[in-house]
Fold:
Amino acid sequence: MTGAGDVAARATAGFRQRYGGEPAGRWAAPGRVNLIGEHTDYNDGFVLPFALPLRTVVAAAAADDGRWSVWSELDDEPVEFGPAEADEPGRVDGWAAYVAGVVWALRAAGHTVPGARLAIASDVPVGSGLSSSAAIEAAVLAALVELGGLDLPAERWPRLAQRAENDYVGAPTGIMDQSAVIRGRSGHALFLDCRTEAVEQIPFDLGAAGLAVLVIDSRAPHRHADGEYAARRKSCERAAEALGVAALRDVATGDLDAALARLDDDETRRRVRHVVTEDQRVLDTVELLRAGRIRDIGPLLTASHASMRDDFEITVPEIDTAVEAALAARAYGARMTGGGFGGCVLALVDADAADAVADAVTAAYADRGFTAPGTLTVLPAGGATRLD
Ligand code: ADP
Ligand code: MG
Structure:
């Protein structure tokens, strides 16, 4: 992992090279990982993500021509657009749509967005499920809000960034990613109620406890992820309807057995059991963290994984291998994080054992003939901010 200084320096160097002169400032937003609470978001339930120490940095300055010019180190060519393109979702496509989408969402909410030149560098791996998309949205949003002196309190940023991604880019996502990367706080996880959108900072000071989270990029090719996601969602909606509740969040843990008895096929019963028990595991995790019992959340993480594997059926062999190897190497708990069918695994480990656990996972992958995993040791970091 490179330091935040390097990525900021790359953004500034990109700005100077593309546009000449100095940026007016640099704004950063992190990636995120979800500690626990999977496929609970669209069931109106609970999630518990935290912001990562990996960041996307935007070096930017206002431009008086009222247009936007954006360059990213991921691409050679800068992309330019004006109000006409920004006002029509889909007109700007490819990666720059995430930037145009933020301009669109701000304008649609009635704000006067200043023209700007933006140069973007990032340490957040793209497309690994660590939310590089929310990172770029939030960093651009932070830059434009400040360059334009817009009256927009940070509580309202997650919704706007989500709209950019849903309605301009066209990617259906919940509010979790944007909330985590905007509201995340160092040493804390963000407890989010996806029905009310209420958030609460939960102490999660891994560093002080001598702990760390090892994030393992499974490198598993995404297999039919979109179709499977849609199928899970549909099955949850149908089950809620059959049970006469607005969403599966409304099935209390104590009523689970009675609810399951009312469903007539085994697959739906297992889908419902995952969602209801997962919501409860998030609540139990929050209680333990509030009591400062970080190590004790390990079994909840591992139980979450078993539920995703056996009941929700969204894991793949690479993911299960990483979890098993991490647990065998004495992680306190481990689980897949993210929507499934690939993506990342996280493991709660003693900080000084993180390398050994990473080596054990890499060795298990080699035994099975899988492409080597990526590994990264992290502590919960802060959300979107101005750097200087
Ligand atoms: P994830 O959010 O899990 O990383 P997504 O598919 O949601 O994956 O978002 C990845 C997309 O976001 C990229 O394909 C690209 O279009 C855009 N993106 C993310 N970070 C950057 C960046 N630094 N520069 C340009 N585009 C980026
Ligand atoms: Mg994303």
